Amino acid sequence: MDKPENVNRCLVRCQCGCTVAVVEQWFDDPQISLALFHWNKCYSFRERLRYMWRILWRGEPYGDQVVLSHGDAVRMGEHLIRLAGENVTSSKQD
Questions:
Q1: Residue 51 falls inside a structural domain
Q2: Strand ranges, E, within the chain
Q3: 44-79 pLDDT per residue, tens
Q4: Which of 21, 34, 51, 72 has CB 3.0 to 4.6 Å from 66, enough for a Cys bridge?
Q5: 60 occurs within a structural domain
């Protein structure tokens, strides 16, 4: 994925390799976008029909993108940092 000059983007791949989380903020927009994408997933015919049906009736394929306000992004970041710190602390005690 190319990184344009007017966006701050971070990609994080799931440990199992099935999903990629993309966090990005455009420099002219204070909101932050968090999107989840399936990585190398092949959909069966039935799954493709299910997504098509959902788009036709609900107008959107799935709810895998979140746009965060600055305050919510800070709160989420602090929470992730706190969880990561707890994880490091507990693994050092083992």
A1: yes
A2: 7-13, 19-26, 32-38, 65-68
A3: 888 888 878 888 888 766 666 677 788 888 888 888
A4: 34
A5: yes
Q: Is the pTM here over 0.85, yes or no?
A: no
The amino acid that residue 7 corresponds to is V
Residues 83 and 76: their CA atoms lie apart, in Å, by 10
Domain containing 16 equals 7-69
Beta-carbon-side half-sphere exposure of residue 57 (alpha carbons within 13 Å): 6
Q: Which residues pair with 65 in a beta bridge?
A: 35
> Number of structural domains, the chain?
1
CA–CA distance from 22 to each of 1, 44, 45 (Å)?
A: 10, 25, 27
Count other C-beta atoms under 10 Å from residue 24's C-beta: 17
**19 beta partners:** 38
